[in-house]
Design brief:
Number of helices: 8
Number of strands: 12
Helix content: 25-40%
Strand order of the largest sheet: 1-4-6-5
Number of domains: 2
CATH class of the largest domain: Alpha Beta
Low-confidence stretches: none
CATH topology of the largest domain: Ribosomal Protein S5, domain 2
CATH architecture of the largest domain: 2-Layer Sandwich
Bound molecules: 4-diphosphocytidyl-2-C-methyl-D-erythritol, adenosine-5'-triphosphate
Strand content: 25-35%
Oligomer: single chain
C-alpha cells in the first residue's frame, strides 16, 4: 500500500510563552500544501526500511516512520513490514516533512491492518512523536495552539492563489530556532487576521522566529525580499525555517531570481 505524505506551511506563528516542560506555547495556522513524499508499506517476513530521494541526515533507525511503527507495535499485533520512503519534501525547512511521514504512516498502517483507530487515537500517537505531527492526521487548515498539537478548525481557502516555495541552501534546526526566541503574547488574533484579504496580510501576520533567524541567516531574508519584489501579496518563513513561501495572485513561473531554489509552486 502506498501513500503520499504532504507538507504544511505556517500562516503566522506566535510563540506565546515558555512551558515548564521545556516546550513553548504557540499559536499558528497550519495550511496543507501539495509537495509530497511517497511512502510504501508491504507485509514481509522481516522488517526492512529503505529510503531514496533527498538524503535524510542522522541514523535511519531514528526515522519517525520506524518510531511510529514501534509505538503501534506496543499496542497491536502488527506483522513485520518493509517500508520504502521516497523523500521529496525538503528537510530542516519548517515544512513538517518528517512529522507528515509519521502521521501518514500511522494512517496507512491503521487502514492496511484494520487497527480500528479513531482520528483522536491516531492524533494521540502522533503527539508522542512531535509537536507538528498530529496536524497531519486530518491535514486540513487549523488554528493550532498549546504545543501546536491542539486544534480548532478554520475556514481558509487559498485555492484561488498561487504559492511559490523557496528553500535557500541553509539548514535551521527546530531546537536552534526555539532557543533564540523571545516569547510574547500575540497583539492580534491570527484567527481574525486570516479573515482579512490576503492583500492586507503583509506586516500583520508574522512569524515569531523571523526576527532572529533572518538576522543570523541573511540568505533567508534575501529570499523573502525577492519574493515580495517579484509581486508576492504575502511572503513569510514557514515554521522554524529555512523555507520561505510567497502567495501570488498570478502563476509564479516568472520568479527568475529564485529559480534554482524554487522547490514547489502550486498550493
Ligand atoms: C516550528 C514548528 O514547525 C511550528 O509549526 C513546530 O513547533 C515544530 O514542531 P516539531 O518539529 O514537531 O517539534 P518537536 O520534534 O516536537 O520538538 C523539537 C524541539 O523544538 C522545541 N519545541 C517544539 C515545539 C514547541 N511547541 N515548543 C518547543 O520548544 C523543543 O526544544 C523540542 O525539543
Ligand atoms: N521521515 C523523516 N523525514 C525527514 N527527516 C526525518 C524523518 N525522520 C526523522 N527525521 C529527522 O528529523 C529532522 C528534520 O525533520 P523535519 O523534516 O520534520 O524538519 P523540518 O522540515 O524543519 O520540520 P518542522 O516543521 O517540524 O520544523 C532530520 O534532520 C532527520 O534527522
Amino acid at each position: 500500500m502506498i501513500t503520499f505524505p504532504s507538507a504544511k506551511i505556517n500562516i503566522g506563528l506566535n510563540i506565546i510563552s515558555k512551558r515548564s516542560d521545556g516546550y513553548h506555547n504557540l499559536e499558528t495556522i497550519f495550511y496543507p500544501i501539495q509537495i509530497k513524499d511517497a511512502l510504501e508499506v508491504i507485509e514481509a517476513n522481516e522488517m526492512g526500511f529503505e529510503t531514496s530521494g533527498i538524503e535524510i541526515p542522522g541514523d535511519a533507525s531514528n526515522n519517525l516512520c520506524l518510531k511510529a511503527y514501534e509505538l503501534l507495535r506496543k499496542d497491536f499485533d502488527v506483522p513485520p513490514i518493509k517500508i520504502h520512503l521516497h523523500k521529496h519534501i525538503p528537510i530542516g525547512a519548517g515544512l513538517g516533512g518528517g512529522s507528515a511521514d509519521a502521521a501518514f504512516f500511522i494512517k496507512l498502517v491503521n487502514e492496511k491492518f484494520k487497527l480500528g483507530l479513531t482520528v483522536d487515537k491516531m492524533q494521540d500517537y502522533c503527539r508522542l512523536l512531535g509537536a507538528d505531527c498530529a496536524f497531519f492526521i486530518e491535514n486540513k487548515p487549523v488554528f493550532a495552539f498549546d504545543k501546536g498539537d491542539v486544534f480548532e478548525s478554520v475556514i481558509l481557502d487559498l485555492s484561488a492563489y498561487h504559492l511559490a516555495l523557496v528553500m535557500p541552501p541553509v539548514h535551521v534546526s527546530t531546537a536552534e530556532a526555539y532557543s533564540g526566541v523571545k516569547p510574547s503574547q500575540a497583539q492580534q488574533s491570527l484567527k481574525e487576521l486570516i479573515e482579512l484579504p490576503v492583500e492586507q496580510w503583509q506586516g500583520k501576520i508574522k512569524n515569531g522566529f523571523e526576527e532572529h533567524i533572518l538576522k543570523n541567516h541573511t540568505q533567508i531574508q534575501k529570499v523573502k525580499d525577492s519574493l515580495l519584489e517579484a509581486g508576492a501579496l504575502f511572503a513569510l518563513m514557514s515554521g522554524s525555517g529555512a523555507a520561505v513561501y510567497g502567495i501570488f495572485k498570478e502563476p509564479v513561473d516568472l520568479i527568475e531570481l529564485e529559480k534554482e531554489n524554487l522547490v514547489f509552486s502550486g498550493i
